[in-house]
């Protein structure tokens, strides 16, 4: 590879760790100061500040390095748009160390297959969620917009949140609840924090049987 290497990594929630992706980029020769990150942003959202900075940093002859294509985009149109714009600028795209060559028919087909699978994963999660909600509604357990979610819906929401493919706003829209409701579900599922004793406080002695 000629030119400079610029890396990009992304996670969909603030709770996820980018360390593994950063280590991959470093192992591929990307300098630490040329790695751009996005936290708490899904690949379906085009407004990603870290990605915009990475794209602005590359010049003709440089290489944009991402650990996997689904970290760059989670939809086929977005992946193609980014790939085509890089090619037009003379910037190479490295997917986990493998260069994407749009002039190679096999390479182009592989790129499109990866983009299709990334988009399929997102669509499949959404379809399963909607199907589950439709079944619940048919059984009378879900009537229009609900201020609260039942135990099964909360468990499903927690699993989807853990995948990192949904933001709080997207989960709220998907379940037709407010973002505050989503936050309450996540807070209830979080392990409780131990209560620290107040400095200087003394424990009240138990009452004796004669009192």
Q: Helical amount among residues, as a percent range?
A: 40-55%
Main beta-sheet annotation: 5 strands, mixed
Distance between the termini: 84 Å
| Tally of strands | 5
Give the SSE string. EHEHEHHEEHHHH
At the fourth level of CATH, the homologous superfamily of the largest domain is Resolvase, N-terminal catalytic domain
Classify the secondary structure makeup into a structural class: alpha/beta
Descriptive terms for the model:
8 helices; 2 domains
Furnish the topology, listing elements before pairings.
Elements lengths: L4 E7 L7 H9 L7 E5 L9 H9 L5 E4 L2 H4 L3 H13 L3 E4 L2 E3 L4 H34 L12 H13 L4 H7 L4 H11 L22
Parallel strand pairs: 1-2, 1-3, 3-4
Antiparallel strand pairs: 4-5
Helix pairs in contact: 7-8
Overall description:
Helix 7 (168-174) crosses helix 8. This protein has 211 residues and is α/β, with parallel strands linked by helices. It has a five-stranded mixed β-sheet with strand order 2-1-3-4-5, with helices on both faces. It has helices at 19-27, 49-57, 69-72, 76-88, 105-138, 151-163, 168-174, 179-189, and strands spanning 5-11, 35-39, 63-66, 92-95, 98-100. A hairpin with a 2-residue loop joins strand 4 (92-95) and strand 5 (98-100). It is built from eight helices and five strands. The protein folds into two domains: 5-112, Rossmann fold (3-Layer(aba) Sandwich), CATH 3.40.50.1390; 122-189. The chain is elongated.
């Amino acid at each position: 590879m000629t030119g400079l290497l610029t890396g990009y990594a992304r996670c969909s929630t603030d709770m996820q760790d980018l360390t593994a992706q950063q280590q991959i980029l470093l192992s591929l020769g990307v300098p630490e100061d040329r790695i751009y990150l996005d936290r708490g942003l899904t690949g379906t959202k085009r407004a990603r500040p870290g990605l915009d900075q990475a794209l602005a940093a590359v010049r003709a002859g440089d290489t944009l390095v991402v650990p996997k294509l689904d970290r760059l985009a989670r939809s086929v149109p977005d992946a193609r748009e980014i790939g085509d714009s890089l090619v037009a600028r003379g910037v190479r795209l490295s997917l986990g160390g493998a260069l994407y060559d749009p002039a190679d028919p096999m390479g182009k087909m592989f790129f499109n297959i990866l983009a299709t699978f990334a988009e399929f994963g997102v669509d499949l999660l959404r379809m399963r969620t909607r199907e589950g909600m439709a079944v619940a509604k048919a059984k009378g357990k879900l009537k229009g917009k609900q201020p609260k979610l039942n135990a099964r819906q909360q468990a499903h929401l927690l699993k989807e949140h853990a995948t990192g493919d949904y933001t709080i706003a997207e989960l709220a829209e998907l379940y037709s609840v407010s973002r505050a409701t989503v936050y309450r579900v996540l807070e209830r599922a979080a392990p409780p924090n131990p209560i620290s004793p107040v400095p200087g406080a003394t424990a009240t002695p138990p009452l004796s049987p004669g009192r």
